[in-house]
Amino acid sequence: xxxxxxxxxxxxxxxxxxxxxxxxxxxxxxxxxxxxxxxxxxxxxxxxxxxxxxxxxxxxxxxxxxxxxxxxxxx
Length: 75
Prior knowledge:
Elements lengths: L1 H19 L11 H6 L1 H14 L2 H20 L1
Helix pairs in contact: 1-4, 3-4
């Protein structure tokens, strides 16, 4: 639960930075359509990999998906 709390705090900080200083994320603007359009494909692949892998790899799949989700929410 602590990890999830840290992820929420980090997401909140990124959203605040986007709100108060939009130039903070300008380097991601060219990639925004690609990040948004690939949401369902990435979600299905991540869910499938999560179901197929063992415990050690599940954590890696989950972390990579959370990074993608943060990008999706911030961009």
